[in-house]
Amino acid sequence: MKGIVLAGGTGTRLYPLTHAVSKQMLPVYNKPLIYYPLSVLMLGKIRDILIISSPQHVGAFRELLGDGSQLGINIEYAAQAEPNGIAEALLIGADFIGDEPVTLVLGDNIYHGPGFGRLLQAEIQNLDGCVLFGYSVGDPERYGIGEVDANGQLISLQEKPVAPKSDLAITGLYVYDNNVVDVAKNVRPSPRGELEITDVNRVYLEQGRARMVNLGRGFAWLDTGTHDSLLQASQFVQTLEQRQGVRIACLEEISFRMGFIDAAACYELGSQLAKTDYGKYLMEISHHT
Predict the structure, then answer these.
(1) Mean pLDDT in consecutive groups of 10 residues from the start of the chain, 289 residues
(2) Number of H helices, E strands in the chain
(3) Could you tell me which of 131, 133, 107, 94 has the C-alpha nearest to residue 28?
(4) Which residue among 88, 167, 188, 241 sits deepest, i.e. has the most Cβ atoms within 10 Å of its Cβ?
């Protein structure tokens, strides 16, 4: 399984914060936003990851994350010249994907919930076509909406519907078999010239091979596309970390827990940040696990 983080776009809704900085480099409490979607792929045991960003920002991500070897993973980079739709990530990453299935996650989405890693691993293991992840929202007319039957089989897709058939918003996490590259190649651009991910998902829907997983109560899905939502995400992470004494989307810890790196490597990564609470946390867990 390959993984792609789409961290492109211009972030205009977050101006002036993003006038010279990628949205995915902005802080969500104590770590860059990019850590959160990257952690999702790692929790799914995905170790070959492509980060796609705008040409002017690829270098910053490379400086932040390198080739991923310090985390026991492989990170590659590619540029999206213009924000031409989510599905374009599948074409940009076609050579990277090769003949494997792929999980695509949007760079401004945050996921947190009990057993999320096991859930994602199970869906990847049993993949047959396409898996989407739904989240109940109070204002479904603002989102792409999925209607499912009792077995989780997708019945219909609606894009910002006036009369929603369900309250399940389709979040920015998509798992596909290897056919998705060919599907994306045959998708017609929208009137705005964008390759819409909904059109890709509809192909799987028409084939009867699209499944929707309801993330359910007790789970958090956050989209950080506005100033308010970015602040709310930081407050959410701060509250949980301070009350529970754990770190959310701590890449080094996830690598350690998943067996990508050993305790000594985790401690060394922490020692490089020894003056911070983040670094002290890494040194502590590597000694007491």
Answers:
(1) 92 82 94 98 98 96 98 98 93 98 97 95 96 94 89 86 92 97 94 90 94 91 90 96 93 97 97 95 87
(2) 11, 13
(3) 107
(4) 88
